[in-house]
Design brief:
mainly alpha, 3-stranded antiparallel β-sheet, two-stranded antiparallel ribbon, 16 helices, 5 strands, elongated
């Protein structure tokens, strides 16, 4: 069983933070800070532990918030005696972000400086959101500036922090209603050189599409015009939710909107497992793709006069198959668009993938007896 994440954010975290703060602010009371942090610490999960430490920071740092923010930022570069750049290491700075979000809203400039520094060590995607609610114009203006920042982490914050439906965070209702300000930022980052940033852009656009599918469709079509491969990837990744919903426009943009004609010949439909109401033993089953009678099959408990019904079917190759075809139901409608009559004659076939199948391939499919 995997170890709980909170175990990697143990009692050593308050000790490390206290030592870092005292290194830049001698009056900081490390012992009292650690004692307050560890009170009830064992019962808390990961995120509540971060908030609990942030509350202790508020108690023991100077009560003048700008001064407290300056001390926090100054402490970030101090040796900590533990890994902070890989795995859960960056979570050491989670309490700092909670402090900024909860106590820095009335000190915009100091809080922006703190988040610019913190996001390069952890992430400020959560702490930036209260500022987007309280100070939307000023925060958006700062994010537009940060879209050209040299740091990949800062540029990613521009996209990730403005996601309307960011996981683990309250939704940004204003941007769900009108995502235009967010889309303006994404336009600046759609061709970012870092995949780390472009993936965030795609996730943000995917969020927007859940509330505004037509806006996503229009944006995707526009971005695909003369798009380099990197931007094509962004659009395809942004369309994944719409594709899962079966949106025709999304499937069309992904290249699945065409209906190619497929010729299927030389295929015999044969049973691999009889169903509960099989036909008589000597009754032939018409099941060839060319509509000629197929070989007779053995019955297992069938009753005279009933239509043949198989639970498992298999298309057995005889020569060459242009596309893999699976059949379902009385019309044998397949996931690949194939349609056949109950007698086995292929009436129509199409593919949604365009991938060729090798000689000798076969497709399994089920036929619900109740629909015959």
């Amino acid at each position: 069983m995997a170890e709980p994440l909170k175990n990697q954010f143990g009692a050593d975290v308050p000790h490390a933070i206290g030592a870092m703060l005292q290194a830049v602010h001698r009056p900081f009371p490390v012992a009292a800070f650690v004692e307050d942090c560890l009170s009830g610490y064992d019962t808390l999960e990961l995120m509540p532990r971060g908030r609990h430490i942030a509350s202790a920071l508020r108690k023991h740092l100077p009560q003048h918030v700008p001064a407290a923010l300056d001390i926090l930022v100054a402490s970030l570069g101090q040796p900590v005696g533990r890994e902070t750049t890989a795995g859960m290491g960056g979570f050491l700075f989670m309490p700092h972000c909670f402090f900024v979000a909860e106590h820095g809203l009335d000190n915009f400039e100091e809080s922006m400086r703190a988040q610019h520094a913190l996001t390069q060590r952890f992430t400020a995607e959560f702490s930036i959101r209260p500022f987007l609610v309280r100070h939307p114009k000023a925060t958006l203006a700062r994010l537009r500036k940060w879209a050209n920042d040299p740091s990949d982490h800062v540029r990613r914050l521009v996209s990730e922090g403005t996601r309307p439906r960011l996981p683990w965070a309250p939704r940004l209702a204003a941007f769900q209603a009108d995502p235009a300000p967010v889309l303006e930022l994404l336009e600046l980052l759609r061709d970012d050189p870092a995949l780390y940033v472009r993936r965030s852009v795609a996730n943000n656009l995917n969020d927007i599409g859940k509330d505004h599918p037509q806006l996503l469709a229009a944006t995707a079509r526009r971005w695909l015009q003369d798009a380099p491969p990197e931007r094509v990837w962004v659009v395809r990744h942004a369309l994944r939710w719409a594709v899962k919903q079966g949106a025709p426009w999304a499937l069309d943009l992904m290249g699945f909107g065409h209906v190619p004609t497929v010729t299927l010949g030389g295929r015999t439909i044969a049973a691999t497992r009889p169903g509960p109401h099989s036909a008589p033993a000597e009754e032939p089953v018409a099941g060839r793709a060319d509509n000629t009678p197929a070989p007779s099959w053995r019955a297992h408990g069938g009753r005279t006069g009933e239509r043949p019904c198989f639970t498992d079917w298999q298309v057995r190759p005889a020569s060459r198959l242009t596309r893999s075809v699976g059949l379902q139901g009385t019309g044998f409608e397949s996931a690949h668009g194939a349609v056949a009559s109950p007698e086995g004659q292929i009436l129509k076939a199409s593919s949604d993938s365009g991938a060729n199948n090798s000689r000798g391939s076969s497709s399994r499919f089920e036929s619900p007896c109740s629909k015959w």
